[in-house]
Amino acid sequence: MPMYNPPHPGEILLEDVIPALGITLARMAQHLRIPSETFSRILHGHAPVSPDLAVRLERAGVSKAQLWLSMQSAYDLWQAEHREQPVIERFARID
Fold it and tell me: Which UniProt keywords apply (predicted)?
Protein backbone atom coordinates (compact mmCIF):
# COMPACT_ATOMS: atom_id res chain seq x y z
CA MET A 1 0.00 0.00 0.00
CA PRO A 2 1.48 3.37 -1.00
CA MET A 3 2.37 5.82 1.74
CA TYR A 4 0.17 8.87 2.07
CA ASN A 5 2.10 11.94 0.94
CA PRO A 6 5.61 10.57 1.52
CA PRO A 7 8.24 13.10 2.57
CA HIS A 8 10.88 14.33 0.17
CA PRO A 9 14.10 12.49 1.08
CA GLY A 10 15.82 15.85 1.51
CA GLU A 11 13.47 16.48 4.43
CA ILE A 12 14.74 13.27 6.07
CA LEU A 13 18.31 14.45 5.59
CA LEU A 14 17.52 17.89 7.00
CA GLU A 15 15.40 16.86 9.98
CA ASP A 16 16.91 13.51 10.99
CA VAL A 17 20.31 12.75 9.47
CA ILE A 18 22.16 16.04 9.75
CA PRO A 19 21.14 16.66 13.39
CA ALA A 20 22.11 13.07 14.28
CA LEU A 21 25.54 13.62 12.73
CA GLY A 22 25.95 16.94 14.54
CA ILE A 23 27.38 18.73 11.50
CA THR A 24 26.42 21.80 9.54
CA LEU A 25 24.72 21.72 6.16
CA ALA A 26 27.80 23.31 4.61
CA ARG A 27 30.10 20.69 6.15
CA MET A 28 27.93 17.83 4.92
CA ALA A 29 27.77 19.30 1.40
CA GLN A 30 31.55 19.67 1.45
CA HIS A 31 31.98 16.09 2.69
CA LEU A 32 29.70 14.79 -0.08
CA ARG A 33 31.49 17.02 -2.61
CA ILE A 34 28.41 18.81 -3.87
CA PRO A 35 27.81 22.57 -4.02
CA SER A 36 26.11 23.96 -0.89
CA GLU A 37 23.43 25.62 -3.03
CA THR A 38 22.57 22.31 -4.71
CA PHE A 39 22.49 20.53 -1.37
CA SER A 40 20.23 23.21 0.09
CA ARG A 41 17.80 22.79 -2.83
CA ILE A 42 17.67 19.04 -2.14
CA LEU A 43 17.16 19.51 1.60
CA HIS A 44 14.25 21.88 1.00
CA GLY A 45 12.56 19.63 -1.56
CA HIS A 46 13.35 21.77 -4.61
CA ALA A 47 15.64 19.20 -6.24
CA PRO A 48 15.66 15.39 -6.18
CA VAL A 49 18.12 13.03 -4.56
CA SER A 50 19.99 11.80 -7.63
CA PRO A 51 21.53 8.35 -8.03
CA ASP A 52 24.97 9.98 -7.66
CA LEU A 53 24.02 11.62 -4.37
CA ALA A 54 22.46 8.37 -3.16
CA VAL A 55 25.75 6.56 -3.81
CA ARG A 56 27.71 9.32 -2.05
CA LEU A 57 25.40 9.10 0.97
CA GLU A 58 25.91 5.34 1.12
CA ARG A 59 29.69 5.74 0.85
CA ALA A 60 29.52 8.27 3.70
CA GLY A 61 27.71 5.66 5.82
CA VAL A 62 24.28 7.27 5.63
CA SER A 63 22.06 4.27 4.82
CA LYS A 64 21.91 2.52 1.46
CA ALA A 65 21.71 4.20 -1.94
CA GLN A 66 18.68 2.07 -2.83
CA LEU A 67 16.78 3.44 0.19
CA TRP A 68 17.38 7.05 -0.87
CA LEU A 69 16.30 6.29 -4.43
CA SER A 70 13.22 4.40 -3.22
CA MET A 71 12.21 7.37 -1.06
CA GLN A 72 12.72 9.74 -4.00
CA SER A 73 10.71 7.47 -6.29
CA ALA A 74 7.84 7.20 -3.77
CA TYR A 75 7.80 10.98 -3.40
CA ASP A 76 7.89 11.59 -7.17
CA LEU A 77 5.16 9.04 -7.88
CA TRP A 78 2.85 10.45 -5.21
CA GLN A 79 3.38 13.96 -6.57
CA ALA A 80 2.62 12.80 -10.14
CA GLU A 81 -0.50 10.93 -9.05
CA HIS A 82 -1.82 14.04 -7.34
CA ARG A 83 -1.14 16.50 -10.16
CA GLU A 84 -3.70 17.11 -12.83
CA GLN A 85 -3.06 14.65 -15.63
CA PRO A 86 -4.54 14.46 -19.13
CA VAL A 87 -7.26 11.92 -19.76
CA ILE A 88 -5.64 8.80 -21.19
CA GLU A 89 -7.63 6.00 -22.76
CA ARG A 90 -6.63 2.42 -22.10
CA PHE A 91 -5.07 0.41 -24.89
CA ALA A 92 -7.15 -2.38 -26.35
CA ARG A 93 -6.59 -5.59 -24.47
CA ILE A 94 -3.70 -7.57 -25.88
CA ASP A 95 -3.97 -11.34 -25.53
Answer: DNA-binding
